[in-house]
Amino acid sequence: MNFEKFNLHANIAAGVRANGYSVPTPIQSQSIPPILEGKDVLGLAQTGTGKTAAFVLPILQRLVQGHRGVVRALIIAPTRELTEQTHQAIGLLGGKTRLRSASIYGGVSILPQISALRRGVDIVSACPGRLLDHVNRGTINLSTIEVLVLDEADLMFDMGFFPDIKKIVKQLPARRQTLLFSATMPDDVLSLAKETMKDPVRVQIGHAAPADTVAHTFYPVETHLKTALLKHILSTTETGPVLVFTRTKMRATSVGYKLARAGYQAIALHGNLSQNKRQEALDGFRNGRYKVLVATDVAARGIDVCGVSHVINYDIPETALAYTHRIGRTGRACKTGDAFTFVTSRDKDPAYSITRVLGDKLRHCVMGDLGIDSSPDEREAVQRHDRGTLANRNRSARHRPGRRPQSKRAGVCSQ
């Protein structure tokens, strides 16, 4: 199947071609037809599988003809980054339709958003809190909504947004199309679907587990040696853009600062930064100015950067679900990626949960003196590995001046 099978409006098809879309992903090929038919759709798919285009394209098709300048489609997402990502996708795919889109989220002045709404928009991408602010101010009219999208519904539940969503839904017309997309489908999300949807078509791609395109490795390490291990991996592993996750904002700042001081093109991203600073960090990561982005979980699903080669969990995520969300930033769109997770002696419970999900896909890698309970034989193996890596670099450097060859992986690894 290709996108021509959907019989999209010529101006939308032009946007599809201009952005290099050729073959629909499974979630797109199975979701777009029922959405085009006006049915409610409950979509379950792993992160990085193309869910945004799966609902943006049918919305554009529905709205390309008809009254302009009133809000006819509302897309709710849990983070600023996701909201902005959807807004940009609408602009890229629907640029020739002249449909107007606005993104609404907190952390920035509300005045430009009010001005955009007054000028008239057709599609609004919003975070729940700021959207309710507009509703309470009377600066947005939700009575004309034809399509509601709840994107990343499980994360919205995790972040405590369900009460806000229910308040918003009460403001919407009863006769509407509702689309709900999620990486996982816990009972609370299913309950929300029953409350807001009518006879939805369920589309499920794969299962609620990390993508098959990602290789998973645990690195046992003492807590105080994590930064040394991170630097060692970055210096001995061939990588593209690297995303490092920490549990706290303070630690993200600290790790980003230490990497930058050590000469790495690194920057931190977390919720305490102003929206301008967050956008600057994301843009710098996207355009290659920064090679390493150190982030907290709040940004886990808002980072859509092509070619992230490695996700490194500096702090292990607390649940297997959180692990799935984090590593969904690599191995996207059928590309391969690596997920490295640092595991300390205090991380037994989350490590066990993640191990149960990954099964035999998981490898363990010991980094000699940087690891936990590494044996003399293992330390000697790592030293031999590092000596060999250095020798290979020196040999290669003589033949390819100016390049710094790197080993694919460092350490003694096993299943």
List keywords for this structure.
415 residues; alpha/beta; Rossmann fold; 2 domains; seven-stranded parallel beta sheet; 15 helices; 15 strands; globular
Would you tell me the structural class of the helices and strands?
Answer: alpha/beta
Integer-rounded radius of gyration: 23 Å
The figure for the number of domains is 2
CATH topology-level name of the largest domain? Rossmann fold
Folded structure, characterized:
This protein has two domains: 3-204, P-loop containing nucleotide triphosphate hydrolases (Rossmann fold), CATH 3.40.50; 214-414, Rossmann fold (3-Layer(aba) Sandwich). 41% of the residues lie in helices and 16% in strands. It has helices at residues 10-18, 26-36, 51-63, 80-93, 111-119, 128-137, 153-158, 162-170, 187-196, 226-236, 249-261, 275-286, 320-327, 348-358, 376-399, and strands spanning 41-44, 73-76, 101-104, 123-126, 147-150, 177-182, 201-204, 214-220, 242-245, 266-269, 292-295, 310-313, 337-343, 362-366, 412-414. Strand 10 (266-269), helix 12 and strand 11 form a beta-alpha-beta unit. Helix 6 packs parallel to helix 8 (162-170). The two termini are 38 Å apart.
Question: Outline of this structure?
Answer:
The chain is an alpha/beta fold and 415 residues long.
Task: Please render the helix and strand layout as text.
Blueprint: H1 10-18, H2 26-36, E1 41-44, H3 51-63, E2 73-76, H4 80-93, E3 101-104, H5 111-119, E4 123-126, H6 128-137, E5 147-150, H7 153-158, H8 162-170, E6 177-182, H9 187-196, E7 201-204, E8 214-220, H10 226-236, E9 242-245, H11 249-261, E10 266-269, H12 275-286, E11 292-295, E12 310-313, H13 320-327, E13 337-343, H14 348-358, E14 362-366, H15 376-399, E15 412-414
Parallel strand pairs: 1-6, 1-7, 2-4, 2-5, 3-4, 5-6, 8-13, 8-14, 9-11, 9-12, 10-11, 12-13
Antiparallel strand pairs: 14-15
